[in-house]
Design a protein that fits this description.
Largest sheet: 6 strands, mixed
Number of helices: 7
CATH superfamily of the largest domain: Ribosomal protein L4/L1
Helix content: 25-40%
Distance between the termini: 14 Å
Structural class: alpha/beta
Order of helices and strands: EEHHHEHEHEHEH
Number of strands: 6
CATH class of the largest domain: Alpha Beta
Strand order of the largest sheet: 2-1-3-6-4-5
């Protein structure tokens, strides 16, 4: 069973915590982690890109010159792709990029991502994260104390003070433990979990 140190908001170690191996100690499945990241990025695409083909651009209904005898190459339309203002050869059209992953695959990918962060020493556990007011400077100090760069901060329940304090920090992102995803975990240098969030994750995903 993996054991990690628990820190307070000042960055001082205040205890140890045993992590559930069923979530934080499985065999990492890199293929499913990759699929989960690709799926997340694909699902974020709007799919609204559009360009006109030669059938859709205006003009070019008449053959520009006769077939033979002009010295020019033969042409059938001024809206062919090689002409200025012509259509695009394989023009993109609006489409749906998202695809489905099975629940079991998603769960294994998430556990694999968390396990990899524990194995790399990039997972930090906080005893609690409480802010009396919305203060970006205070939140930044907490991250500095924990030596957490490009941090993904996971809390047990939505805390307005924490979320709004972190919102203005470019390298910090917050999430409630029931809404975490593989992409944000793998994209972060440091994953910061509160003790309550660890308990909730072990309860939900075990």
């Amino acid at each position: 069973m993996a054991q990690v140190s628990v820190y307070n908001m000042e960055g001082k170690e205040v205890g140890k915590l045993d992590l559930n191996d069923a979530i934080f100690g499985i065999e990492v499945n890199e293929h499913l982690v990759h699929l989960a990241v690709v799926q997340h990025l694909a699902n974020m695409r709007q799919g609204t890109q559009k360009a006109k083909t030669r059938a859709e651009v205006s003009g070019g209904g008449r053959k520009p010159w006769r077939q033979k005898g002009t010295g020019h190459a033969r042409q059938g339309s001024t809206r062919s792709p090689q002409w200025t203002h012509g259509g695009v050869v394989f023009a993109p059209t609006p489409r749906e990029y998202s695809f489905k992953l099975n629940k079991k695959e998603k769960r294994i990918a998430l556990k694999s991502a968390l396990t990899s962060k524990v194995a790399d020493g990039k997972l930090v556990v906080l005893d609690e994260l409480k802010l009396d007011e919305i203060k970006t400077k205070k939140f930044a100090e907490v991250l500095t104390n924990l030596k957490a760069t490009k941090a993904y901060v996971v809390i047990n329940e939505n805390d307005k003070n924490v979320v709004l304090s972190a919102r203005n920090i470019p390298d910090a992102k917050t999430a409630v433990c029931t809404n975490i995803n593989v992409y944000d975990i793998m994209n972060a240098n440091t994953v910061v979990l509160t003790k309550d969030a660890v308990s909730k994750i072990e309860e939900v995903y075990a």
